[in-house]
Each structure stands twice: as structure tokens, then as C-alpha cells.
Amino acid sequence: MMQLYSYFRSSAAYRVRIALNLKGLKYDILPVHLVRGGGENFKPEYLSVNPLGLVPALATEEGAVIQSLAIIEYLEETHPEPALFPSAPLERARVRALAQTVASEIHPLNNIRVLDYLVKQLGADEEQKLVWYRHWINEGLTGLETLLAGNPLTGFFCHGDRPTMADCCLIPQLYNAGRFDCPLEAFPTIRRIETACSKLQAFRDASPENQPDAE
User: Fold this and answer.
1) pTM score of the predicted model
2) Which stretches of the chain score pLDDT less than 50?
3) What's the pLDDT tens digit per position in 6-58?
4) Which residues contact 1 (CB under 8 A, 6 or more apart)?
5) Of 115, 108, 170, 123, which Cα lies nearest the Cα of 143?
6) CA dist., res. 70 & res. 99, Å (int)
7) Which candidate, 2, 7, 113, 153, has a CA 20 to 30 Å from the CA of 131?
8) 60: alpha, beta or left, given left = phi > 0 and alpha = psi -120 to 50?
């Protein structure tokens, strides 16, 4: 059985949990607390799994895989059904682009390392941190809404009528937006897709509040 090094609020780990659930794969959660004691992710035992000190990491019989999108692609290659990508190359590229819009453009500006640096090194107070967070969420989701609303390939989900890697990335980002009370009224397509995903057990089981390390 695969083992997922995860933190319940990590959106990157959340993406992988959704993908594993959508594919019906069994896995054990190995919690790695990113805050307690300065961060369990910086302890030697975890750094031996992922020298970057980031979650998630997926332990398999073949070895460990790091980086959430690489893990999802690995799962797609080793367990191709049900597919998290469409079959046409151009459509597969669209799914990757949507996923990377979240994982590469939105998330890195608002992850725990950046927020901690703003506060501890640059002296930002909590209100300034919140302004930063909301600004970059709004910037990213504005672009994503345009990409989704303006494309006929968008269906019930980000691409078509079954969830893909793009949805695996979108939902955790929206969870984070909710934690920081980011207004989402300007994103009707995104909100509709969120509603569609919330009806699927795979997404519900992956949610932070349903994790064994939830606090």
C-alpha cells in the first residue's frame, strides 16, 4: 500500500489526496506537521524522504515521489483508469495549464513559507499579511475564471464533465481562500465547479477536516 506524507491543511497534499481518491487507490496517511516544533518537515527523518522539506511525498514500492503534480502524473501513468486527463494532446495540455495556473502562479505566493517570511523577516502585521494573501488570490482566480468561463471545453468541471488534475488543484486553493475570507462572488464559473466537486465523495474524503491529523 502507498503511503502519503501529508499535512491536513497543505493544499499540495490535498491535491494528491483527491487524485488518489478519484482513482480509488488505497493509501496510508503519514502526518507531517508543518508548524509544530518548528516544523516536522525539517527533521532529519523527513528530509531523508524529501530533502526540500516539503509535503507531500508519496512512498511507493518503487521509491518516493515528490511534488504534487509529479505525483498525480505518476498515478496517472501507473493507474490510468479512471483517467485524470483527457485523451487528446491539446486537451491534456489545457488541463495541465489550468492545474499549473493554481500550482505555479497562485499557490507559491501564499504558502506558509512566504507568509512566515512576510511576518518574521519583513515585519508585516496580520492585516498586511491578509491584504497580501487576498490580493494574489484575487489576481490568480480572476485569470482562472477567464480561462474557464471563456472556453467551451469547460463542463461541469474544469475540463468536461468528469474531474481532472485541474479540479484536484482548484479545490484546495478555494479551501485556502475560504480560510482567509477571500471574496469569491466575482468567480461564478469557479464557484459552480466547486459545487460540482463537493458532491463527489472523493473530494469530501480528501478535505482537511476529514484527515487523521486534523486539528
Assistant:
1) 0.96
2) none
3) 999 999 999 999 999 999 999 999 999 999 999 999 999 999 999 999 999 99
4) 26, 27, 28
5) 170
6) 12
7) 7
8) beta
Per-residue model confidence (pLDDT) at position 150: 87
Of 214, 213, 173, 210, which is closest to residue 193 (Cα–Cα)? 173
Quote the pLDDT of residue 157.
98
Q: In whole angstroms, give the CA distance from residue 41 to residue 51.
A: 9
**CATH numeric code, 2-82:** 3.40.30.10
| H runs (alpha helix) in 37-123 | 44-47, 68-78, 89-100, 112-120
Is residue 173 within 8 A of residue 11, CB to CB? The reply is yes
Task: Please identify, in words, the CATH class of the domain defined by 89-203.
Answer: mainly alpha
* Every domain of the chain and the residues it spans: 2-82, 89-203
